[in-house]
Design goal:
By secondary structure, the protein is α/β, with parallel strands linked by helices. It has ten helices and eleven strands. The strands form three sheets. Strands 1-11-8-7-5-6 form a six-stranded parallel beta sheet. Bound molecules: NADPH dihydro-nicotinamide-adenine-dinucleotide phosphate.
Length: about 290
Amino acid sequence: MAKLINGKEIAAEIRREIKADTEKFKEENGYAPGLAVVIVGEDPASQVYVRNKHRACEEVGFYSKGFELAADTTEAELLALIDKLNHDESIHGILVQLPLPKHLDEEKILLAIDPKKDVDAFHPYNVGRIMIGNYDFLPCTPAGVMALLERSGVAIEGKECVVVGRSNIVGKPQALLLLEKNGTVTVCHSRTKNLAEVCRRADILVAAIGKPEFFDASYVKEGAVVIDVGMNRRPADGKLCGDVDFASVEPIASAITPVPGGVGPMTITMLLKNTFTAAKKQGAKV
Ligand code: NDP
């Protein structure tokens, strides 16, 4: 039976640490780290994420400000808001909730965020810094996976690590971070041949493809550590599930993350960590 990697507990532990650091930061500086969250339109899933982000900020003592813009907001209006936030000294991190409505050019918007305030780490400047291993911020989900591994005592050095998925926000940065910790990394995607065979080489398997319960025991080596990044609705009952078929894989893995309660709670926690780092680096006064 696998050890359960409890993301909820680990996230709570890290948030307690951030809260204590924030109290000290406020005493020393007289202001709180500040996060601006911008949402355009009324996508219900995005609205839930944004609410959770504000709640998390409140929990650790940050200042957070929400900007809810109408779905027909123009690019010029959104760029003007970002410019204002770039120059607002009470705001240390800016997050633009994706996806944006189709008429807005996501790349142009993300490029407009000052890299110093880019707490999602999506700006090409920050992506480049991650590539060379000299960074201030890491993208929240892969950073959350690394924190889960570290705090569960999973050694990465010399291990066969297989990442399935190569998106810019999860798969690619995840591969770089495992490589930085001296894993031997393979990245798989939709054109990978013999996927199950490649996955079975993994000591650490990271599943990030967005397909409900795709990975069953035939993809997993006995004793592997399995990290499930997927967040899907199970077609049969509409319940939240991962990319991994937990019931099939859990008996043969040595450790596994559940969904919900695994990687999910870590993502917002890493956003808090990036915002705290941004505030420390900027040293602005409210
Ligand atoms: P994307 O859709 O951007 O990328 C999916 C990747 O999976 C692509 O690289 C694609 O390959 C690959 N892929 C798709 N189907 C297969 C297949 N059958 N076999 C092998 N590879 C496949 O998704 P994201 O990276 O944004 O997200 C992945 C999952 O993680 C989703 O379930 C998402 O909801 C979840 N997620 C969870 C977060 C959390 O906080 N827990 C945060 C972010 C994402 P190709 O490139 O060839 O098309």
